[in-house]
Amino acid sequence: MPTVHKAFKYKLDPTPEQERQLFWTLTRCRELYNAALQERRDAWKMQRVSLGYYEQKAELPGVKEVRPEYKEIQAQVLQDVILRLDRAFKTFFHGVKNGERVGYPRFKNERR
Fold this sequence. Notes:
Blueprint: H1 16-47, H2 53-58, H3 60-66, H4 75-97
Helix pairs in contact: 1-4
């Protein structure tokens, strides 16, 4: 018998202050994603070293020291950003291995 999954949709109606806070947090997450992607690209290009989720996750406390605004964001949120990037790379390499046409993980802009 197949497993049944339930999904719930909630409509958010944030106040203007909450909307500003959400936008601020999403902006920081996008910056972290792009920085982590650039770090992986540079590590491979310069040293032929492949960075993974745990190596980048271990650097988050250092990021918070250099960029104090990241201290305002919960650690799990930042870890999830790194995990999403890691999943993008795993999907990319899985597709390449299977001979599929897949795109390399992209940098995110405000609209993505």
